[in-house]
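Input sequence (264 aa), recorded before submission:
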Amino acid sequence: GGPPKMLEGQLANLRSSDAVIVDIVGANGKLARTLPDGSRIPMRIGDTMELNDHRAIVAGICQVQRTFQSQPVIYTTFSRATVFAPRERKLMSFVLVKAKPGQDLHALCQRIRETTGLAAYTREEFKALTVRYYMKYTGIPINFGTTVILGFIVGVAIAGQTFYNFTLDNIRYFGTLKAMGASDFMLLRMILLQAATVGAIGYGLGVGTASALGLLTGSTELSFRLPWQLLFFSAVAVMLICAGSAALSMWKVIRLEPAIVFKN
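Predicted structure, C-alpha cell format:
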C-alpha cells in the first residue's frame, strides 16, 4: 500500500520516528506554510506538521493518482496511523493484497472468502463496487442527469428557434429556388448541411474548451478525464440537437409555395 511514485525521499524513510509521506499536490497546496506577508512555501522533507495534536515529520514527497476529492494524501505506517487518526471500532476499511505472478485472481478471492469469511474483490470488481456505491447512494447521478437533460432541452430550444428564425428570414430565397425548379429534397439537404456545419463547429469549440480546461487543471488535485466514450456520446447528442432543430425549419420549407416570391 505504498505510494505509486516517489519524487523525493524513499519509502524506507517511514521507519523514522513520526515520519509521513505527503503527495506533491497537497505539499504545494493545502499543506503549504503561509508566511506573514501572505506568500506560501511548499512543504518539503524535514518540515513538521500536527495531525490531531500529534507531530508528524515529512520524510518524503510522492505523486499519486488524482481523485474527485481535494484532500491531501498522506502515507505512514499502520501503527502510526492509528495514533494520528481518532480511535474507532474498526480502524481498517480494507486490506490490499498483492498476488503472486501467474496467480488466478478470482480463485485467490474465493480462497480468501472461504478462509476469513470476509469479502474479497479483484481490482476490477473493487472499482465496479465503488462505482455502484456512488451511483446508488449519492446524488451524483441525479445531479449530473438533471444537468445533461436540461442542457439537451435548452440546446434543442435555442438551436431550433435560431434555425426557424433563419428560415423565416430567408423564406423568399427558398421560394425563389423552388420557383427555379429546386426540389424539396434539395432544400432539405441544404438545411441539413447548414445544421451539420453549425453542429460540427460548436462541437469542436466545446471539446477544445473542455480540453483546455483539462490542461489548466493538470497541476491541481482534482481529477479530469475525457474518455472517447464521452466524446462519442457528446457528438451524438449534438447531432440529435441539430437534427431536431433542422426538422422545425424543414416543415416550413416543405409547405412553402413558390408563389410567395411574387407577393409584396
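Checked by second reader. The mean pLDDT is 84.
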